[in-house]
Amino acid sequence: MHWLFGDQLGPHFLTPGEGGPGTETPLLMIEARSVFRRRRFHRAKAHLVLSAMRHRAAELGDRVTYVRADTYRQGLERAARGRPVGVHHPTSHAAVRLVRTLPKVTVGPARGFLVPMADFAAWADGHGDRRLRQEDFYRWVRRVHDLLMDGEQPVAGRWNLDHDNREPPPREAASLQVGRPYRPHEDDIDEEVRHDLDRWERDGDASFVGRDGPRLFPATRAEARRALRRFVEHRLATFGPYEDAMLAADPAMSHSLLSSSLNLGLLDPAECVERAERAWREGLAPLNSVEGFVRQIAGWREYVWQVYWYFGEDYRRSNALRHTAPLPDWWSGLDADAVRANCLRTVLAQVRDTGWTHHIPRLMVLGSHALQRGWDPAAVTDWFHRCFVDGYDWVMLPNVVGMSQYADGGRMTTKPYTSGGAYVNRMSDLCGPCVYRPGDRTGEHACPYTAGYWAFLDRHRELLAGNQRVARPVRQLDRLADLPEVLEQEHTRGDTPP
């Protein structure tokens, strides 16, 4: 038998060769209730994962044995009955530990990524003690996979078009004037999933956060392909300039919303970047938008996957800033209504209602607040894992520990990614109606991000003084006449909803 995990749902997981199953090999899928019992997932995420698994099982028909069990181990014992089982390399350290303790289970290479793990390890080992810069890795992937290349050089002579992709949102615009993202239609399988989730909650078998329904993200290969086509044809052209911008009434902007489909295995990254490159070569999208999209998938997504395995399990315990504060209940429960700060209230409500926001709200609103408040990075990582429809351990561990919370002390990034309210004000329309003012550090209208930024720098000034990218604002601390007042104010504020 060949075992398909719930994030290995596309056809590229069934092609023969390199540990893949033969065309007639029986397949196994296991729906383990214990997964939802152990963690308090977002309801929309639980719905999407179960819907995708059950849709895939329906497509595979008699070839698959679909087992609903309490644990993976019980499901395997019930279905395999001592027969040999093959499986592609799972996507988490915990799942790898599990399959390697099971009798007669053979683990093949990972699929769904552009670079084999051994190739990345060889590339990384060749760097010695130097930092593994994502930019260097991205250029290497571009060369190896001939993505946006003109012979040995990048097309148009530039590897990086980030400078063209940092525009604030159009002034006085409530939304970008682009085609709407693809949205699927629910069916009988979705109705069954929702009924089961209701029953599990009613019986006390599982507990969820957030709201569920209607389903917003693809649960089948056909839906995912339609979402990719819609993005490339109607949204890719405007993706680049505004990929870092935020609008309160337009959370999707021109983003692809394909991350959950990629992370479920419904789409292969190669088809996404190749489709985008083809759009540029056919004159359907500008280079800066296409390069920005290719960078997100062939650069950042691939890099995060690789360093998750390369850094190993000890990376999870990284805590260079020694942050240990627990997450407050209003945050854990997605209680956006308890928050007054418009940016945080808006973004937290988006997570509550959909299980998704794009990368800038994640990093510069949610992650920045957690970093400034000194919350335990392991708890923050778990929260992102549970509360986002595209959240998996391999995705969130490097993104949160490395980039968002700077808990690894700079192994992945060159500085902590946090800022005062001026950044949010420049890149969004969120500050205008807020009760706080981005330029105020103290007083009734003191922006919690502006005050929190200076309090964070002061708390870690000794560590950050030697970092070239933040040394200047650290030096400015001594020129802030109201710094004692700022620190007292933020100490008093604590973890109450800002």
Characterization of this structure:
This is Cryptochrome/photolyase family protein. By secondary structure, the chain is mainly alpha-helical. The chain has 21 helices and 7 strands. The strands form 2 sheets. Strands 3-2-1-4-5 form a 5-stranded parallel sheet, with helices on both faces. The chain has a two-stranded antiparallel ribbon with strand order 6-7. α2 (43-60) packs across α7 (188-202) and α10 packs antiparallel against α11 (287-311). The longest helix has 25 residues, at 287-311. The radius of gyration is 23 Å and the shape is globular. The protein starts with a strand and ends in a 5-residue tail after the last helix. 46% of the residues are buried.
Features:
5-stranded parallel beta sheet, 7 strands, Cryptochrome/photolyase family protein, 498 residues, mainly alpha, 5% strand
List the helices and strands and how they pair.
Elements: E1 2-3, E2 27-32, H1 34-38, H2 43-60, E3 64-69, H3 72-80, E4 85-88, H4 93-101, E5 105-108, H5 117-125, H6 134-145, E6 149-150, E7 153-154, H7 188-202, H8 221-234, H9 259-263, H10 269-281, H11 287-311, H12 329-332, H13 342-354, H14 359-373, H15 377-387, H16 393-404, H17 421-427, H18 448-459, H19 461-464, H20 471-476, H21 483-493
Parallel strand pairs: 1-2, 1-4, 2-3, 4-5
Antiparallel strand pairs: 6-7
Helix pairs in contact: 2-7, 6-11, 10-11, 11-16, 13-14, 14-18, 15-16, 18-21
